[in-house]
Amino acid sequence: MNILYFVPGIMDDRELKRRERIANGFTSRGHHVDVRASKSGPISIESAVEEDMSVPEVLCGLLTYQDRYEAAVLGCFGDPGLRAARELIKIPVIGPAEASICLSQQVADRFGLVVALERDIPTARAMVARYEMTHKLAAIQPLSIAVLELARNRKRTEHELIKAAKLAEKQGAECLILGCMSLAYILADELVNDKTNIPILNPAKIAIKTAETFAQLNMHHSPKTYPPAEYEKLRKTIFETELRRHR
Q1: Looking at residue 185, what is its pLDDT?
Q2: Which domains are present in the chain?
Q3: How confident is the model at residue 246 (pLDDT cuts 50, 70, 90)?
Q4: What pTM, to 2 d.p., does this model score?
């Protein structure tokens, strides 16, 4: 089984290979994850502007690669373009935020989110509302560390994450979701799990295992919820190159 993990933005080859190595540590024997990135776009996503601007390249990339994989994961916690991708792509597409929030309900009654910056809070809150889970959200705590800095000073990141987990717990969170894939790929959950009173959920692990489950069970998104895109129409307009092979 092959799974595509697609990063909605640009990322250097060294980091792509590092994430691919880590991602393949989450899979079952015989399964493989390829980590790829957009050809253009933001270097990190820390605003609704960057998130929305990343979507066209995400859709182009998924269209280009979909025939090689059994499932795909969007490599950003904001799940950019998830609904559009499910209409457009013929394989299951998993959003880390949606998958993690759904799984959190089997872990605890109320969840918290930890985000990189305070400015991420409104976007995260809007995303939770989109998934109709506001009533289950207890807290959103910022680390006050930019995304690109999270891996550069892991001691500081660990310290701030422990503090955020304690504050979220005081606000009623019974588990905490890492609301950033850069946190996921420094395995921040493993850094602090024995230093917090509540479980820490890693969205990279959860999304990849969810994609694996979809593929193993031969599950697909409902066409009633995600009506299939009209390839013939799109071939004549915005996806002429990407849809050339699809008839």
Answers
A1: 95
A2: 2-95+206-235 (3.40.50.12500), 97-202 (3.40.50.12500)
A3: low
A4: 0.93
Phi-psi region of 146 (alpha: psi -120 to 50; beta: other; left: phi over 0): beta
Question: In the numeric block, which tokens belong to residue 136?
Answer: 């289950």
Average pLDDT in the 62-90 region?
95
For 64, list phi and psi in degrees, rounded to 5.
Answer: -65, -40
Query: Tokens 């904001």 correspond to what residue?
Result: 78
Compute the distance between CA of residue 132 and CA of residue 227 in angstroms, rounded to an integer.
Answer: 21
Residue that has been written with the tokens 């660990």 in this structure: 158
